[in-house]
Structures are given as C-alpha cells and as structure tokens.
Amino acid sequence: MIILGIDPGLDKTGWAIIKKEGAVFKLLDSGLIHTKTSASLPERLEFIFDNIGAITLKWKPMAAAIEEMFLNKKTNTQANTVHARGVILLACKKAGISISSYNPKTIKKSVSGNGSADKIQMQKIVKMILRLKEIPKPDDVADAMAAALCYARIEPLRQKMKVARTATAFGTGIRK
Predict the structure, then answer these.
(1) What are the DSSP calls for 6-73, one per residue?
(2) Tell me: the pLDDT tens digits for 140-162?
(3) Which H or E element spans position 112?
(4) What's the longest Cα–Cα distance across the chain?
(5) Domain spans of the chain, in order of start
C-alpha cells in the first residue's frame, strides 16, 4: 500500500510517500513544496495544486493522509492554510485518491503513543520507524511522514470496525 502524507501550508507544504508492506514501512520519497511569498495567492495555490498533482501522478498512492489545521491566534496564517488545504484536497480528489484527515494529537498518539509529543520526539520516532539514517527535516516533511504512518496504523482498524458493524447490522436485520 502506498500512502501520501501531507502537512499543508501556504508557505511550506510537506509531503511524503510511504509504502506499507505487512508491518514494514518504507519511505519512498518526500519533499517540501515551497511557494514564493512574492507570488499572488492564486499563483501560490496553483503551484501547490500542480505539485500535489505531479506527486500523485508519479507515485499513484491509494490514499492521502492530510494533517488537519492546528488553530492558533494568527488568523492570516490560518486563512492561508485553509486555502492551501483546500487545493490539496481538490488535487487528491481529482487524482481519485481516498482522503483521510487527522488532527495533530491523533497523529502524534498513533505514531509515538503520546498525543503531546514535541517536534523533536516525533522526528526521532519517525526516523526509527522508517529506518532513516538521519532525522527527517524540515519538520513539515517529518509531519507529512507522521501523517502517512498514522493512516497506515489507523485505517486497517477502521476498516475492520466498519466490516464488523455492517455484519452486526445485517445479522440483526438492521440496515445501516
């Protein structure tokens, strides 16, 4: 299974392609989409959209795991991240990829076991899980790797629960 992890942002969008084979995870590729601050908002969004499209075309992931927004007091930053996240969702949708979103706490908990893990802890754990030689940097890319790992750990359980709920509902004559 090939998974695209994304940490969205207007200035910097981190992305990572993870392959899961059984219980083993392997980093296939990763990078940073960095937009020019001198470009207009529509140009920056188009750049992000085009890059996500190129990544999905090259790697053909079956799923995308996108970090949800972390709300802070910088409303301008939040608005820009919302715009970037929107074009990322659209690019993944147009590529026919299943999309899952996770809040930062869920990602941290599923990858490290600690929903309050700091950036350095997460980078070290991602390095260990993916058997990387160095700590992944910048943190936007490490966060994208963690999002993909979160998907790989959470989704199989979600699918089993969905099948179990469906089987239970049909077994009792109740349809969902």
Answers:
(1) EE--SSEEEEEEEEEETTEEEEEEEEEEE--TTS-HHHHHHHHHHHHHHHHHHH--SEEEEEPP---S
(2) 999 999 999 999 999 877 676 76
(3) helix 104-112
(4) 61
(5) 2-171
How many CB atoms are closer than 10 A to CB 6? Answer: 30
Q: Find out whether 102 and 154 touch, Cβ atoms under 8 Å.
A: yes
Q: Please provide residue 18's backbone torsions phi and psi, each rounded to the nearest 5 degrees.
A: -115, 140
User: Residue 130 carries which DSSP code?
Assistant: T
**48 token code pair:** 């992000």
pTM score, whole prediction: 0.87
Domain at 2-171: CATH architecture: 2-Layer Sandwich (3.30)
Determine the Cα–Cα distance for residues 55 and 60; give it in Å rounded to an integer: 8
Catalytic residues: 7, 67, 140
Q: What is the pLDDT of residues 80-134, one digit of tens each?
A: 889 999 999 999 999 999 999 999 999 999 999 999 999 999 999 999 999 999 9
- Looking at residue 76, what is its pLDDT? 72
